[in-house]
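Write out a record, focusing on structure:
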Amino acid sequence: MIRGSCLCGAVEFEIERVAGPFELCHCSRCRKSSGSAYLAGIGVSASDFRFVRGREHIAVFELPVRARPPVYRRPFCRTCGSPVPEPAPIGSFYEIPAGLLDDDPEIRPDRHIFVECRAAWTPQGDGLPELDKHALLELRARRVPDR
């Protein structure tokens, strides 16, 4: 079992198995949301995820749609402000902010995404695939519709 929690511990969750992908998103919204060079997000099947406690401590900030739905959502703990998983799955999966994990998910990042938005000061050259928006949309179009 992989455990995770927010900074103050009000929101806790468990993951039975990590499915992936494990993406490092460089889009401007994820950079601002994380306060870092990118947001590290791990995909988890809804059937492998459960809140242990604190779902009631989750609030969601939404930004308007840019090009097409859905809106940009940032769930966070009402107490400490940490990003947390959505209170309900999106389709059949959750995207988990990797920094919340207390245990090793036993997978490593798959790729950088939205690299055309990468901050100029961000280190490069870690060997991971780098996908721009067009390449990412092509990749996701080949996947299951609800992911």
Q: What stands out?
A: Residues 2-141 form a domain with the Metal Binding Protein, Guanine Nucleotide Exchange Factor; Chain A fold (CATH 2.170.150.70).
